[in-house]
What does this fold into?
Amino acid sequence: MYQTVTIPKWIACRSYLVGTPESKTIIANNKVHKTILLDGPASDLYAFLCENDATSKENLEKYATEHGLSAEIDGFTEQLHALKMVGFDTDTEDNYVSAPLNYNQDAEEKSKGAIEDRMAKWAFGKGFLWSVFMELTYKCNLRCIHCYNPAFRGMEEISFEKAKEVIDDAVELGCFELTVSGGECTLDSDFIKIIEYARQKRLNVHIFTNGLSLYQNPNLLKKIVELYPYQVGISVYSANKHLHEKVTTVAGSWDKSVAVLEELKKYGVHSQVKTVQLNETVDTWRDTVELAKKYDTAIAIDVTLTPTIEGDKKTWSHLVNDEKLTELFSNPESPMYVGGWKEPPEIDVNRDGPCYAGSHTLCINPNLNVVGCVSLPLKFGSLKTQRLKDIWTDGQKNPESELYKWQHITLAAFKDCFKEDYCRFCHFCAGMGMLEDKLYAKSELLCKLAKMKMKVFYELKNKQTDKPYQAGICQMK
It folds into this structure.
């Protein structure tokens, strides 16, 4: 029989409104890749266990008695243990190899995503900051032809001391997720210290990297594995080595990135192939999907090329052509297939906000500016003179603050958008319009993609019903 209950090192968790009827705790088990949500007394109990690295059975039973849970405590604790959400002092498992992955099966991913999405909305509604995105540095060991980062890449990076301050503030504000990116985040001098501290605070850590530094430094990769991140995203632009390196402009980069995918699979780490399709690579999209399957990894595929942070549209010279876009949207094997979509609903421009940027999440760049996200460089403050918690708190109550103003706008503020049928098919991004033109402007590229998605959607739908497609036939319901 166990005498001590612990929170395992593979757990990421956050508790909210403990001791109230609305108490909630979200728990991500990054060993068995399962996320659960606890409510009420169950949430309170887990929050109690998280107060210390280890809780004696005597103290646990005392807590149960004080809260009227004596009859349920043993069964509930055993259930948590079976899910590897808690550990016992009698456990013998000490290796860091996670459970086998099979992310070609989407059900578990969708389940976790649904829990996190629901919790993100709930947390923001209660005044909590759900996630933080840190661009640790603009330094990079690739020179990708479509890169949106600044043309002049200084040596600025977020130091451990500043990152520690940000993490402390974020946790105080209720943050559950931390994403680190760049540039190439592993080139930050304090990269691993930052990840270690974030995991000590039980943040659910996402790492976006090209993998080159992890290949060159196996000890760094091993440290990441031992810290149980939620996900490691690896940039792979094509399953064809030559085409991938035509994008990265660095010889040998494909072999290194793919070798890291193989290592992540070996250790059971949840990985993701992050692939932006360019006109140079799109002919190999099927092979890239198969590459992801080979390494049991999720895949995030996109065709949206962001103008540079300075607003330069030179990246658009690499946009996928219309014929290939139609193929991506119409082929059932494509992750971008629209044939399985439900009819997009009417958009309520007076109720809906733009997106999660600046509301559910904040982004911090290497210059220590606090912005909406990497694609929405709308400045809300600077960590050179302010604390993150002060920027967020001011944004919750001060109508004059930029953050408050942004959090209280609706889609109606985008005067040129949401007037056409095809707008229902738009993967709307306020930052795209801002980078292409100005804040609140519509995006030329997103409009084009929305029109194409709508056209393909109704062509596929009408094939099933043997009805001819007519432009403009769809009406808002």
The first strand starts at residue 4 and ends at 6. The two ends are 60 Å apart (CA to CA).
